[in-house]
Design brief:
By secondary structure, the protein is mainly beta. 12% of the residues lie in helices and 46% in strands. It has five helices and 18 strands. The strands form five sheets. Strands 12, 13, 15, 16 and 17 form a five-stranded antiparallel sheet that branches. The protein is rod-shaped, with a radius of gyration of 34 Å.
Length: 258
């Protein structure tokens, strides 16, 4: 390999102009960005470039609609549109009779726009189990998704997914836990995180609407055995629809005096 450091700039330029084999050996084709990610029916710009000073031919190969936005002898800028599924693009140039190409994959993603959380049941006795179910109707790529079930700001469970098809799919995460007294003081929610950094994108996050769990304490066994309305009211305390219950006996009218 020739060393340009010792020859100096004028000599190096003379070699590039007079010796086609030198530039041909160093001939390169580049594409930017190298990783492409886009929403369905989206568009993106792609730059094809080469280090060949006077390329004979150059362009972009794609089955998608393309528009040439700008060009110079060593680069071309294209707009690719109507991207509905994963595909591949190829930049190519010909220099001194030699053709090279550079390819890149385009990934189409479906963001988690709708995140739904369901608590079952919404009223539960302390110490009894309840279930959290998080559902995202349509998301892709599934292997880039993480569902996190939250109590307040504390994560309770993380659910990841294996590699699947590129088509959008439903994702669910379920957790069964025991209700505690403090659970009535926290909101429950679900976070959906789509990490597209491996495909050249960013991190997308969506949250469900917060849900509230009502926790009540069952009366002790002794209280349940108490006779009369008092024991019944203590057993039902905290249950839905019992706010108006009273432990006193209903008033009755006595006989009318003569």
């Amino acid at each position: 390999m020739l060393s340009l450091h010792w020859w100096g700039l004028p000599t190096a330029l003379l070699v590039l102009l007079c010796c086609p084999g030198f530039s041909e050996d160093a001939f390169q084709v580049n594409m930017w960005p190298e990783q492409l990610v886009v929403e369905p029916s989206g568009s993106l710009e792609v730059n094809c470039s080469t280090n060949c000073v006077r390329p004979d031919l150059g362009g972009l190969e794609t089955p998608l609609p393309k528009v040439l936005l700008a060009r110079q002898p060593q680069w071309q800028l294209y707009l690719i549109s109507n991207i509905s599924e994963d595909t591949a693009l190829y930049c190519y140039f010909t220099c001194a009779g030699k053709q090279l190409s550079k390819g890149a994959n385009v990934s189409v993603y479906h963001p988690p726009k709708l995140v739904m959380l369901k608590l079952q049941p919404t009223w539960v006795a302390m110490g009894r189990p309840f279930t959290m179910e998080c559902r995202v109707p349509a998301v892709a790529p599934l292997e880039s998704l993480t569902l996190t079930l939250l109590r307040g700001r504390d994560p309770l469970h993380n659910q990841t997914f294996g590699r699947a098809t590129s088509a959008p799919q439903e994702a669910t995460a379920t957790l069964s836990i025991t209700a505690g007294r403090e659970d009535s003081h926290h909101n429950f929610s679900c976070q959906a995180e789509l990490d597209l950094r491996a495909q050249g994108g960013g991190i997308l996050r969506s949250f469900s609407e917060p849900q509230v769990l009502q926790v009540y304490a069952l009366a002790s066994e002794e209280d349940r055995c108490l006779p009369g309305p008092s024991g019944l009211a203590e057993t039902a305390q905290g249950l839905p629809g019992t706010a108006g219950m009273s432990s006193g006996a209903p008033a009755t009218s006595g006989p009318q005096g003569a």
